[in-house]
Amino acid sequence: MGKITFLNPEFFWLFLLIPVVIAWYFWKRNQQSATLKMSSTTGFKNSESLLVKLKPSLYVFRILALCSLIIALARPRTVDVSNQTKTTKGIDIVMAIDVSGSMLAKDLKPNRMEALKRVAADFVGERPNDRIGLVLYASEAYTKTPVTSDKAIILEAIKEIKYDNALQDGTGIGMGLATAVNRLKDSKAKSRVIILLTDGVNNAGFIEPETAADIAKQYGIKVYTIGIGSNGMAESPYAYGPNGGFLFKLQKVEIDEQLMKSIARKTDGTYFRATSNDRLAQIYNAINKLETTEIQELKFYDYDEKYRFFVSFAVLLLLLEVGLRNTVYRSFI
Under DSSP, is residue 198 helix (H, G, I), strand (E, B) or coil? Predict the structure, then answer.
């Protein structure tokens, strides 16, 4: 009965009448049968037939029928609720990620790039109703994944991010931002957002970051900028070793924070600094809360009425009582 609800539970107050009805029966039951006064019953055999003993069950049937009718009036029913959500105003987001060699620095664990991939994947999972794209840049930039609502494609693209010399090493912040703007400029979404992440200073590319920011502003695209890297020194790659792997040494972390703040301010965004894995996760959580999507939720209720069973049960009991009273117990007064 845990899933059954009642449309009119106030009818359960009628159960308070049941004790009154029962008390009335016991008070009146001696008047429901004829009586014969005799001076002595010694000569009569003291035995009651089964029918006599079962006659009170007629009144039990009536009480049970009354209880069933009260439950029926309360309208018991089960409810199956199904939800359907509809995004009314979606957001298109492009993550522009620096994949230069310095992203292999180990101040975040296991390194900046792997830490970012984990957080970015979690961020995508928190945006089920938005479209997301991915732009990678070093000295140049390219679109890894265009804006799409297929989160499986985005998550797979994030997993594949690595430093593989596909792009000439360097940090072309303007190139990355301009490529991201190009992916969003024709979007019809209510809000268009770029998350621009770097761990260095602009030292490559033929598009100035300020110029790319002006273009973003012209198209009404908001840019959140993130500088990733600890304050001070970080164990960073500086050369290849004899086995082809990177050699690391402590190097000063250099991030053009003034530039990143300027880009964010110009496009009505915000600049963040991620100096640890936890701080990076907090930043993406903050952006996730700042950029909320309006969702319309539709609920569909499927009611299965249960009162018919109780009405049928009450009618059956009443018919049984009337039938017995007018057949088997007809000779009883």
Answer: strand
Q: How many whole angstroms separate alpha carbon 49 and alpha carbon 133?
A: 89
Chain segment 266-316, per-residue pLDDT in tens: 999 999 999 999 999 999 999 998 887 665 556 677 888 888 888 998 899
Q: Kindly indicate the confidence band of residue 107, based on its pLDDT and cuts at 50, 70 and 90.
A: very high
Question: If you average pLDDT over every residue of the chain, what do you get?
Answer: 86
**Three-state DSSP class for 180?**
helix
From CA 216, how far away is CA 238, in angstroms rounded? 34
Give the C-alpha distances (Å, rounded to integers) separating 182 from 2, 89, 169, 300: 56, 21, 22, 41
Longest pairwise C-alpha distance within the chain: 129
pTM reported for the whole predicted model: 0.64
Of all residues in the chain, what percent carry a pLDDT higher than 70?
A: 85
What is the dihedral sign for C-alpha 277, 280, 284, 290? positive
Asked if 106 and 205 count as a contact pair (C-beta separation under 8 A), the reply is: no
Output the CA torsion sign for 16, 18, 22, 28. Answer: positive
Q: What's the confidence (pLDDT) of residue 226?
A: 97
Report how far residue 283's alpha carbon sits from residue 285's, in angstroms, rounded to the nearest whole number. Answer: 5
Rg (C-alpha) for the chain, rounded Å, is 40
- Tell me the pLDDT band of 35, cut-offs 50, 70 and 90: low
In the prediction, which pLDDT does 50 show? 66
Rounded CA-CA distance 216/184 in Å is: 9
User: Which residue would you say has higher pLDDT here, 3 or 22?
Assistant: 22
What amino acid occupies position 206? F
DSSP 15: G
Task: Give yes or no for residue 333 having a pLDDT over 50.
Answer: no
DSSP 62-102: HHHHHHHHHHHHT-EEEEEEEEEEEEEE-EEEEEEEE-SGG
Residue 251 host element (H or E): strand 246-252
**CA distance to 40, 175, 272, per residue, from 229 (Å):** 112, 21, 11
DSSP for residue 330: T
What was the pLDDT predicted at 246?
86
Helix/strand/coil for 289: helix
